[in-house]
Amino acid sequence: MRRRGGAGQAPLLRRYAPLAAVVNDFYFALHTESRKTPYPRAAIAEQLARAGVLGN
Questions:
Q1: Could you read off the pLDDT of 3-53 as tens digits, one per residue?
Q2: Domain that holds residue 24
Q3: Among 2, 6, 15, 48, which residue's CB has the most CB atoms within a 10 Å radius?
Q4: What is the pTM of this model?
């Protein structure tokens, strides 16, 4: 039986964890603080660039 997960997923998690944290913080604020919470466009773009998804 093959185990799911493993060391192959660790780089992926390290790469995208900061982006997930930004989006999660926005989602949490949107639902618990104010529906007028500003979308974190700059922070998301920054994390995407750091992850190598957006070329600047």
A1: 666 677 888 899 999 999 999 999 999 999 999 999 999 999 999 999 998
A2: 10-41
A3: 48
A4: 0.78
Length of the chain: 56
- Residue 2 CA from chain centroid, whole number: 28
Residue 39: phi and psi, rounded to 5, are -70, 130
Overall domain count for the chain: 1
Q: Specify if 29 maps to a domain.
A: yes
Residues 6+ apart with CB under 8 A from 56: 49
Q: Which residue has the tokens 């466009």?
A: 41
- Residue 21 inside a domain? The answer is yes
Residues 6+ apart with CB under 8 A from 44: 19, 22, 23
